[in-house]
What does this fold into?
Amino acid sequence: MSVMSLHRSRVVALGCAVAVTAWVLSWAGAATGLTPGVLPAPQLKVGKAQADLCPTAAAAKALADQRVTLGARSPAVMAHVNGRTCVRLPMTRGEFALDLSAGSVPADGGITFTKSTGRSLTFADLVFDFGMRKVIGRATIEGAPAGKARRQPVELLTLEFQLNKTKIDLAKGTAEGAAALGLGPGGDSALKDAFGTAPLPARGTVFDATAGGGVTQAMRAFSHAFML
It folds into this structure.
């Protein structure tokens, strides 16, 4: 290889490195709430991940006052996180934009609410919709007539991302974040149908959610951006 060709190759490689770095910094800023650049937000695919839904102090007290126990429907499990008893939902599929502006991530298993009388309600088929900022799913009351089981997906919870706690490492293929979950109209209605009154506050945060796991296709997003 001639000296001129070697020099040209080094210049091209350096240019690509600078472009990739600028692209990463642009969308790293977007992930923390800053205005992104002109490049489209890359889509990241969820690998193996999980979300912990922990009731706030007010929500935990409201559940206890109405003698309603929070539980998990398999493959979700109960987990102790920083002194709180939470529902841990596994996530193994779905996609979302790096700037959290779009995408949807389904969760496996579900959340159960069981009253001391034995009456039980399950939130299942949960989908975290990033674009609409909602958690959509189905609510089923155990032993209720078919008309009482919400067979169509409804808004069970509202979703508000805490961008200052969002960390996405494109090089390692990992992501973690946090969100505040409120009670959606569908969730409030289902709880009232099941127990007469909703054992969760209708306003404010009812679950503090944290999530983390693997993401893939980051390098494919790089390639796509530079081919446009």
User: Anything to note?
Assistant: DSSP finds four helices and 13 strands in the chain. The mean pLDDT is 82. Residues 157 and 184 are 4 Å apart (CA to CA). The longest strand covers residues 43-55.
